[in-house]
Amino acid sequence: MALQERTRRSLLRLRHQLEQDIKPQDLMDHMISDGVITVDEEEKVRIKPTRKDQAAALIELLLRKDDRSFISFYNALVKETYYDLAKPLYQDLPGVSFNGRKGSFDSSETSVQIMLSEGGVPQRPVVFVSRPELLNQVRMKLDLLQKDAGGWVTVFGMAGSGKSVLAAEAVRDQRLIEECFPNGIHWLSIGQLDKSDLLVKIQSLCFRLEQNLDSQSQQRPPTSLDEAKERLRFLMLRRFPRSLLILDDIWDSSVLKVFDIHCRILLTTRNRSLTDSVSGMSSVEVESGLDDRKALEILALYTKMNQNALPVEARDIVKECKGSPLVVSLIGALLKDKPNRWDYYLRQLRQKQFKRIRKSSSYDYDALDQAMAASIEVLPDEHRELYKDLTVLQKDVKIPAKILCVLWDLEPEEVEDILQEFVNKSLLFVDNNSRLNLYYLHDLQLDFLVEQNRDQIESLHSKVVNQYNHHYREAAPTSGDEGRLYWIRFLTYHLAKAQMFQELYSLMFSLDWVRMKAKVMGPAPLINDYMEYGPILDKENSEVCSQFQEFLSLNGHHLEQRPFPDVVQLALSQPHSSAVYRQAREQALHPANAGKLYFELINKRSIENLSRLVIHPHLGSIYSACFSHDGTKIASCGASKTLKVFKSTSGEKLIEIQAHDEEVLCCTFSPDDHLLATCSSDRKVKVWNIQQGKLLRTFEEEHEEQVNHCEFTNMSQRLLLATCSNDSILNVKLWNLNKPSSQNTMFGHFEPVNHCCFSPDDAYLSTSSNDGTVKLFQVSAANEWKTIDVKSFLSESDDEDVLVKCSTWTADGKRIICAARNAALVFDVQTSDMLLDIKTNRLSTVQYCHACPASNLLALAFSNYAIELWDLEEKKKRADCSGHLSWVQQVQFSKDGSQLLSCSDDQTIRLWETEKVHTSSAVSLKRDSDVLFDGEEIIVSAADNCNRLQVRDGRTGSVLFQSQELPFRIRSTCMCRNPSAVVLGQENGNVQVLALPSGKLLATLLGHTKTVLHFQFCQNGQTLITSSEDTTIRVWKWKSGECKVLQGHKEQVRCFSLLSDSANDSRLLSWSFDGTVKVWDIESGEKLQDIKAHQGAILSCHVSPDRCLFATTSADKTTKLWSCESWQCVFTLRGHQDCVRSCRFSWDSKRLATGDDNGEIRIWSVKDGSLLKVCSQESKDATDSVHGGWVTDLHFSPNNSVLVSTGGYIKWWDVARGESLQTFYPTGSALKKIHVSPDFSTFVTIDNIGILYILKRVA
């Protein structure tokens, strides 16, 4: 649209005078800001050789433009105080009514735009995105000014947050102008001005207002601020009473006094404290950043691209500047001219090169660094120095004022006043949603400080450390200290930045620091410290660093328990060569710890730690865990209904999402690692953006039963998501994430489908079902290609159920492995022939299988807590991975095959180094064992995982004797000193007596028909007593084979005890699951007493050392004390809430300890049956027992002051107080019994994964 003719004539008439007087560059700045000329057009004018030529070129350009350009040119003349030139042009402004319009105008949008242009309101930016919530807030505040002729509205926020654009857009509303401000909108840009410049601004405004009046009303310009204030008051109250004055970019409250003229005012500022300087002011805060969608919209508009087609650098730019409207607009404008520089400007932003992120004069500052500096320059000198100290903060970290009290050595009240000043000037932000006010910097502010003070970084961090050391010279910050969390989290960071390496070494390699930081923050931040600062350590300290890192990686799950474990005790289990162990032993022997119980493993060489990292991310079973494709992250989900993502190196949590309403059964990464998919028992499938932790899409309509598994294609080119469910027919679906419904449904299974998996080339999808088959579908057509009938290979009858749990493809796509029952079957994909049948001898099912994408390894997860690695080429097992304490639900190799992760119902995820597991040669032992203590000598007998009986020297680990592998499982063993022999009992009832150390077979005792459960030698080793699941007890003269059979029990006899050690007392006490206790004479075989003791099975029995009483415990939750004279029940002890599994008398026979299946231990008085103490503690979560499992064994110390117990772990208790003294956490769990040396200094046990522990008290 061309200029109106009268407007064109006016411009031509004044052309010569304009060319003589104007400075084109000053005027073009305003016109570019209004968007009426482009940068290219400005450049064509600017390159003219003289100012007069430039002016002529600008006039020529204007004559080719439209009315908006002319109005912008006129406003520029007024703003630059060319009043004499502006006045003649005013009469010919487009759309102006000359009969004293005084605010009357057409209701069209054009008239609104003309009014705003006349008032100097900036044009909408060329690239503009709306912020409706903020816009509505400002308009609501302006609406209220109708009733308040002297009201103020403030829009405040940090530099570059978009305050001016928001204010201009708020008044770009026809209804608002008609109803509230029909006399006009008048915009005045203020900035940082002295009095003379401010006077010029007000003169310009008065001139503009008077132009709307008749010529008699026009006066000479005011010559002082006081006169200007009165002139403005008159004009606003008398001539334009229903108008709005907008003051843009106010810095100082003194400026507001000049405009305190009882008119309606909207102002923008960085200084929120201005709201307190004028009464009746309401305010709107502008957030420092746009959300990602709007920020990306700006970049898309500038570059004329579809938002979805923006390169990945676009999101990184938005993320780096936290969506700052200024930065996004500056970079967008730069990219408009140079669209191939995405990576360049992202690098400039990351490298804090703010000077290179500059644009034309559409903003008051030429570059971003100038905008930042302007805010700081208005601070007093002393406060400017204090603000510099904030350079040491980290991004996205909020700190309490207490940190700065330490740093600045000031009282809290002084610090709070200074911080409030920073906040008021939008130099700092405050989060007052918590108990404490927490302060933080915007990323751009922090980047600017770092860039400005780059040469002082080291000294600034040194100041932090020195102030910390001074303030906490007496003691480290305690739990009541508001700054404690910050110091624990960031002290190592400050030390490293200050290059105070010796102090950093001393701190990081201190168990006291490990204890303090892990107790507050968990182990992951500590591991991160060792990984981050390891490279800057010298070789010696680097080795120490790796030792501390390994210690935390393997014990991190214990450090997340409550009550918090003893770090010294955990560290005593480290190898003797480790600096962690040496420091722990030094602390254990320190006089300050005198009397405290510490125990160290004396057989460490026989214990191999195969896990690289153990993580405890969820409360409840973990059903699924997976590596990201780049290997840096792990996602997990389970019974807790949550999805978590954490670092694979340290276990540090990155994201936690309450993902579903019910258990989350599976999670999987997209090929580019940007997305995560989850599926659940709630029948929903969800897709999440990992970086933002936001839900992108929910598929909830099509699956009618729980969704068991989900998996993305292996490649991103044609991204699809496969899901499978318990639906009877429509149970396998393919989803395109851009569509609300499934793309295809695969038909073929009529039973629940447990698992689905794409072939490496994404051509096929394998599905594993409860119908006993694995089906292969063509992905492109969704047609069934072939069926592998797994059931036919495992079942001889059609009536038998064979549930195929999962399937996995080899890396070449030529073989597929299926898991069902206790087997993994390998099939040729083309022919469906079975190539390999991996059947384990485990009494458990294969829960999951995964083929390594980089090698021939196959990992199998079992319900009996184990993991096996098989070599598919060599067709043999390569390794056992032991450590989990419950069903292993899933295993997965990393993409490069170097690591394997596993997740379990024991609430942990374990990471294994594949090569380390391969080279393991650990032999595991069974828990049924016997131990002989002879001075310093410790001899242990137990069966191993190959069903051989081993007799070991406990101290050295050397094998003194090892039997041949036996055909029937060894279930019990017992040793005799004289003669030196060992006996073993098998599941078929056979008993063998072998000489030590030769292993010569001395006797084979046949008679029992079922598993032999317990042995005891007596009468100088000449007699052997055995009990069995066949309900009998046999008394053998084992050398001759003579045998007496004690019959009478109706169920298995798990144990028995001689009533006396005396050779003259031949009475034997036996107990059984049948609830009875029987007394026998082993010489005659006569049954002396038959006592119906309990309603339920008897689980344990113990005879008091003084032989006066014996105690029985039962599944009926009671304990009973019996007289050895009358055989009558003396007391029935009640209180346990679960089966009472173990009992033990103190050596003085005055107390009885009992332990139940909930992990609770009670100590009773034998004298009157009263309860003395309950040994318990807060459990780590609601599903865990106090003892980590059943209390299976109990022993008192010789002085009766300490009690040791076994369950999920070993605990020592103070008998008098009932308090825990120490805890030892084995690698496994479910300890059956503990063997205790006579002096109570040595303890021997074996866990459920076969590791032998010999613990010696540190003294």
UniProtKB/TrEMBL annotation:
PANTHER family: APOPTOTIC PROTEASE-ACTIVATING FACTOR 1
Purpose of the protein: Oligomeric Apaf-1 mediates the cytochrome c-dependent autocatalytic activation of pro-caspase-9 (Apaf-3), leading to the activation of caspase-3 and apoptosis. This activation requires ATP.
Organism: Xiphophorus couchianus
Highest taxon, organism lineage: Eukaryota
Pfam families on file: APAF1_C (PF17908), CARD (PF00619), NB-ARC (PF00931), WD40 (PF00400), WHD_APAF1 (PF21296)
Protein name stated in the entry: Apoptotic protease-activating factor 1
GO terms for cellular component: apoptosome
GO molecular function terms listed in the Swiss-Prot or TrEMBL record: ADP binding; ATP binding
CDD domains per UniProt: WD40
Self-association and partners: Monomer. Oligomerizes upon binding of cytochrome c and dATP.
